[in-house]
Amino acid sequence: MPGKINDADYHSIRTFEAFDNRYTATIHGFLDAKDYWSKCSCKQFFADINIPSLLINAQNDLFLGEACYPVDEAKKNPYLYLEMPKSGGHLGFVDFKKKGEYWNETRIATFTASNL
Q1: 81 closest CA partner among 93, 92, 70, 95
Q2: Which residues contact 35 (CB under 8 A, 6 or more apart)?
Q3: 58 burial via Cβ count (<10 Å: 0-12, 13-18, 19+)
Q4: Claim to verify: residue 102 and residue 55 sit in the same structural domain
């Protein structure tokens, strides 16, 4: 993206908000990080879900703050199933006890089969 990314003083960026303010929001036409986060968040659509849907967010996801976990939205919508395992990280869920299978893939298959 020549000319679209200003890499001067990039080492001074210390938070996700600072990164998104400088790069993500700017490159994609948002006003700032908060504008980007509010318009791109899927939380705004949870109330409209009307088929059984599984959402998995690990509690130790370093990218997600407490406000990202849609606990209240899940309580209000009987079709939204929120599971928050203690571990799994941001893109983890590797279960080495089962030949390296991803736990979330196994869980999703089980959920889907039980909700057909």
Answers
A1: 70
A2: 25
A3: buried
A4: yes
CA 13 → CA 26, 38, 97, distances in Å? 15, 21, 39
pLDDT tens by residue, 54-102: 999 999 988 888 888 999 999 999 999 999 998 888 777 777 666 777 8
Hunting for tokens 């967010």 — which residue is that?
A: 57
Does the predicted model carry a pTM greater than 0.70?
yes
Is 74 a domain residue?
yes
Number of structural domains in the chain:
2
81 lies in the same domain as 114: yes
Whether 4 is in a domain gets the answer no
